[in-house]
Amino acid sequence: MTGQAGTQQLIDGKYEIVRELSRDGHVTLSEVRAGEGVTRQVAWFDVTTPADRQAFHAYRTAVRTLAPAGLTDVVARPGAYYAVWQPVTGVPLETVMVQPSKPEETVDAVRALAARLAVHGFALADADIVVEGHEPRIAYLRPAHRTPEDAALMNTATLAALSGGRVRPRRQPGAWLSFVPGLLFLGGAVYLGVQAAQIYLNPPVQEVASVTGKAAREATQQLVKAGYRVQYTEGQAGGLPIGAIIRQDPAGGTSLPVGRLITLTVNNPPAVQVPRLEEMTLTQAKAALKDGALALGKVLKVDGTLTNTAEGHVIAQIPQPGAQTQPGQPVQVMVSTGVQGKDTWIPNLAGMTYEQARDHVRAAGLVVTRVRERPSDEPANSVLEQTPAPYVRVAVGSPVTLTVATARYSPPTQSAGSLPLPPAYVPPALPDPEAPEEPTAPDGSGTPGTTTPGDGATQTPPTTTSPTTTTPTAPPAAVPDTSAGDVNLPSSNVNFNYTFPADLPDGSYTVVVRDADGERAVLAPTDAAQLRGATASSDNAVTVRGDAVFIIRRDGAEFATVTP
To answer: Which residues of 169-185 are buried (b: 16+ CB within 10 A; e: fewer)?
Structure first.
């Protein structure tokens, strides 16, 4: 009901509560202080159900028609239903009623006011009335739920008390002539009173019309016109519109004396909550409303540029999401016709994460269509470059390309462990040499190489060298195996030149050269993104010995070989 402003309680943020005057059902009457210290009275209505809201609107219609002198404002909006009343000068009607002599003008004016109040279902007792001069003025009107007939019956007792005592007639020339119509009026009143008493004591009996299925207002008018009193009760029926009569008691066709009470049950099912339809398509909104027992109402198409809403999506709705309404009621929606702007731009996205950059691109009305990866020392998943460039104006919906940083080198997922070393080379032990036998001549005589007289030939004896036997005292150090003849292989200079395919698989690539001396690295580990479609070549010639081959490895596994 109220808000807080410091330690003061406020009504609707502008009326400071001084004190509470009364509380009647769901209506609280408070004395308040308005602007510049003016004192007013505020009747606050606690509206929590559709029935409460309907009753307040009926009250507002009545007070606007009656135009009470004390009424200054009537407010009706969600969360704030109240009427503001101001003090009215004059003599209270209760004081006038106990006076022994009352002016005829005052009595007639009060009767006319009673008739006006009864039309709207109010009795004189429901109003605070003061009399200024001869005019009765309404200072405050309390809510009431009565039929015009019930209000008229209540006014009878008040008007009888008002007519008690002496009524001073109007002083006009020829006033004596007024006795004649007065007598006629009195005689007619007596006659009508007798007839009314006869009708009240012996009312006619007639058949009650069936009003089931009709609107409550139409059904009430028909029954009241037939002379019956009507009261309402609420019910629920799925096949009838809101406000239609579900049943009546007594039922239609029953014989009932005129003036009796007929109870009408009005279709008023429990309120349902309006779902959120914003950003849905029209098809999705229809399905959501159907699930909530509601219907799609008027569809308005508006420009979605200000809200950046795509074409065909809901921008707003009436009633708002979460509002309470009756089942079957329509919900109006506004649907976007699309973003009509022609040009847009994006800021500098460098350094942002990919997700942050994507959100900026979407907010500008553009679309990320391509993401490139580049090895970098910047944090992974951060933006390095963008196309279009920052602050360049482009058409709405244009594509955007982002270059995102990746790690330069990805370590293997599993450790390769220590490589086995070959055992130290130990040469075989040499056998001990045996003493050579003394050479003999072919004929078995003499020493070879001597000249035998008579044969004409001179033979030179061989030089005999005694071998030295060496026994190793410790294993010699390992030396390269030269059994294959690698020691004397020639050296040459070769160059590496290779064009990597455009569809090179992802991974880390290295290049080594293998010759008679083993393997040496030519290209350090490089990501596939940098090598796709590129030509790699060594800056300087590589010196090799013997046959050489370049080996390209992907993540440690052999990918290709190149022979220089």
So the answer is: eeeeeeeeeeeeeeeee
